[in-house]
Write a structure and sequence with these properties.
Layout lengths: L1 H13 L5 H17 L3 H4 L42
Helix pairs in contact: 1-2
Amino acid sequence: MPWRAWALNYRVLSDPSTSPAEKAVAMCWVLHVAGDIRQPFNTTELFSAAYPDGDGGAGRQFVIDPLRVETTAGGDGRRLDGAPG
């Protein structure tokens, strides 16, 4: 629904009878929603066998650090870039 929020607040900004305070809030929403366009997790939701009710815009997903490697049987978790684990 980001496009609905953008359209609604754009109309608020375009209305000459809107108060400056209302326009300030609307501008915040327009900029926020426009910024979300680049953030696909904020504008989409995954439905699959693993997430039959959706993943909550990736809120139920986890990112695994690709640089973390188990280098010993003890699993010290050292990173390839040398940063602390």
